[in-house]
Design brief:
Structural class of chain B: alpha/beta
Helix content of chain B: 25-40%
Largest interface: A-B, 52 and 53 residues
Distance between the termini of chain A: 110 Å
Number of helices of chain B: 3
Strand order of the largest sheet of chain B: 1-6-5-2-3-4
Radius of gyration of chain A: 31 Å
Oligomer: heterodimer
Number of helices of chain A: 3
Largest sheet of chain A: 5 strands, mixed
Strand content of chain B: 15-25%
Helix content of chain A: 25-40%
Order of helices and strands of chain B: HEEEEHEHE
Order of helices and strands of chain A: HEEEEHEHEEE
Distance between the termini of chain B: 83 Å
Strand content of chain A: 25-35%
Largest sheet of chain B: 6 strands, mixed
Shape of chain B: elongated
Strand order of the largest sheet of chain A: 4-3-2-5-8
Number of strands of chain A: 8
């Protein structure tokens, strides 16, 4: 027997429109909030407030003195390590620091190592101070970092 | 006469590959999204240094001070100067003491703008030292070039 009006199999399809709407909203949210992460690190400075009665200072462990001078715009005009003038060359500063403290083999941690006191003009731009700290605290050799001076402190601010 | 109903052929594109791609994109952005960016401040552009590396572990009791180019200090959303910073630090001190720790255990993270005056940063450090803080971290951007 022939069935004429046989119903065709109904194909059920899930309506995807609402899901796609939500998914696109999520996508837009993540794209808008996406920000390329800039990796940041720290220079650690342990610096308790010095007491005024500094009668117990050991002369053999006087810190190196790094003097940074600036012009009126805050640009670096001179670097002086102890009494040695180094112009505005951070490479020269690093070489001078290596000459002074770099003889020790790395990893010999019998003491905390030498200390440096940074004395800057008030209006010197902070990035020069960071450049100076970078130069005195280590050398980057490929993936390795050879440490030079780890103890860093600041002199009294020079309020102009 | 019997008219045969003609089925309209609805052209439907196959959405599966598109949805696959969109889900992959969402997964990509979800993994890379960094909620720690809340630490950052738009007014601060950090200086670069080749030596620093992101720390392996987080510092204890971090107190983040943002220093804008004009020397304004931002601590927890409030603005201070180097002179008035003591008030903000006192509030942080209260929290530290409530947890049974001393100021020497806390770490002051200084995120200063690269063009700010170094003297301002020094004064901020001095102001924190007067509140018995000892440990400071000068935050800089890693320079990979």
């Amino acid at each position: 027997m022939k069935f004429r009006n046989r119903e065709e199999a109904v194909k059920h399809e899930v309506n995807m429109t609402s899901m796609i709407d939500i998914v696109f909203l999520l996508l837009v949210f993540f794209v808008m909030t996406f920000k390329i992460v800039e990796l940041e690190g720290d220079f650690s400075v342990k610096m308790p407030l010095a007491s005024d009665s500094s009668g117990m200072v050991d002369d053999t462990e006087l810190p190196l003195k790094l003097r940074l001078q600036a012009d009126e715009q805050g640009r670096l005009t001179s670097i002086q390590l102890n009494d040695v003038q180094l112009g505005v060359d951070f490479v020269a500063l690093q070489n001078q620091v290596i000459a002074l403290v770099g003889g020790k083999p790395p990893g010999e941690a019998s003491d905390d190592g030498p200390e440096i006191e940074i004395d800057t003009d008030f209006n010197l731009r902070y990035e020069y101070v960071i450049d100076a700290i970078t130069s005195v605290s280590g050398i980057k050799q490929g993936d390795q970092t050879l440490k030079l001076i780890e103890k860093i402190k600041f002199a009294k601010p020079r309020r102009s | 006469m019997r008219v045969k109903s003609k089925k309209v052929d609805l052209a439907e594109g196959d959405l599966t590959p598109m949805i696959d791609m969109v889900f992959q994109l969402i997964a990509f952005f979800m993994v890379l999204i960094n909620f720690a960016q809340t630490e950052a401040n738009d007014r601060v552009v950090l200086p670069n240094s080749k030596l620093v590396k992101p720390p392996d572990e987080k510092l204890d009791f971090p107190i983040i001070l943002h220093v804008a180019q004009d020397g304004e200090v931002i601590l927890g959303g409030d603005s201070y100067t180097a002179q008035t910073l003591r008030i903000g630090l006192n509030q942080e001190l209260a929290v530290i003491r409530a947890e049974g720790k001393s100021p020497a255990d806390a770490n002051i993270i200084i995120r200063a703008h690269k063009d700010t005056a170094a003297g301002d940063v020094q004064e901020i450090i001095r102001s924190a030292q007067e509140q018995k803080f000892e440990k400071f971290a000068l935050r800089v951007k890693e320079d990979r070039s």
